[in-house]
Amino acid sequence: MADFGLAVYNSSGYLQIDSTYKNLSLRTKGAVTSGGSPTATNWYSASFTVAYGTSPVMAFRPSSGQAMLLYSTVSGSNITYYVLCSASGVTVSYWVFDDPVSVTVSGLYGLIVNNAAGAKVFDSRSNYMRVVGVLSSPGVLTGDPMDSSGGITQTFGTSNLAVVQGQLRSSINNNSAGTGSTTYSLFLAAAFTVSGTSVVWKSANEQTTSTASGGVPPSQQSVLAYDYLVLDVSNM
C-alpha cells in the first residue's frame, strides 16, 4: 500500500522532497593542519577521526597547494581520514555528510518528513549536500588531461567549494628485481587545488619508497579510474 505525504519538485521538474527520497545532510565539520615528517617528495599528512554514522561522505578543501585523500580506516564506531598535502602548515577543512537519520540538528521550528516506517528523510533545519560539479576518469594510462601541464580546471559560481574524492588514481612502480628484496615507489598521480572559484586537478609527483621482500619483477600496477564531486559548502 502506498503511503501519503508531501512531494516537492524544483523548477526543472526534479523531485526534491518526498517520503521515499533523501539527500545526505551535513553531520559534522572541522579543520586540521598538515605536518609531521615529509614523504620522499615533501608531501605532508593531515588526519582526523569522526564518528562513522550510517553512510558517511567526506568533502575537503586545502587552504593552499594540492591535496589528495590517501585512504580511510574504520575502527569500531569511528572512521579516520588520511589526507596528503603538498606543503606543511596547510589547513584542511572538511565536511562530513550522512543519512539524515544520523544527523542531530538544533532549532525549534521547521519541516520534518518521515517515510512510511517513521524514519526521517528530510529536516528543513539541516544543511544538505549541494553538488555543483562532477569529474570522471577517461580510464587511460596515457593521454589523460590530468597529466597535461595545465591539468583539468572546472570553474563555478562560488568560491565556497569542497571536493569529494572517490577512487584515487595511482600507480606502483617496482624499481628493481631479484630473489631478495625489491624497492618500489608509490606514485600517486591525482591531486587537486581549490583556487578562488575553480578546482584544478593535476598529476602530482608524490613518491614513497619502501622495500619489500620476495623478488618482485619490475612492473607497473595502475589504478586508472577516478571520480570526484564538487560541492558548494556556502553557509555550512
Helical percent range? under 10%
**How do the helices and strands follow one another from N- to C-terminus?**
EEEEEEEEEEEEEEEEEEEE
Percentage beta strand: over 45%
Radius of gyration: 21 Å
Number of strands: 20
- Biggest sheet, in brief? 4 strands, antiparallel
What is the mean pLDDT?
A: 82
* Principal-axis shape: globular
Which stretches of 5+ consecutive residues score pLDDT under 50? 176-184, 210-218
The helix count comes to 0
Structural class of the secondary elements? mainly beta
Count of folded domains? 2
Order of strands in the sheet with most strands: 18-15-14-19
CA(first)-CA(last) distance = 38 Å
Quick structural overview:
The protein is an all-beta fold and 236 residues long. The chain contains no helices and 20 strands.
Structure report:
The protein has 236 residues and is mainly β. It is 0% helix and 49% strand. It has two domains: 8-130, no CATH class; 132-232, no CATH class. The protein is globular and about 55 Å long. The chain starts with 7 loop residues before the first strand and ends with a strand. Residues 176-184 and 210-218 have low confidence and may be disordered.
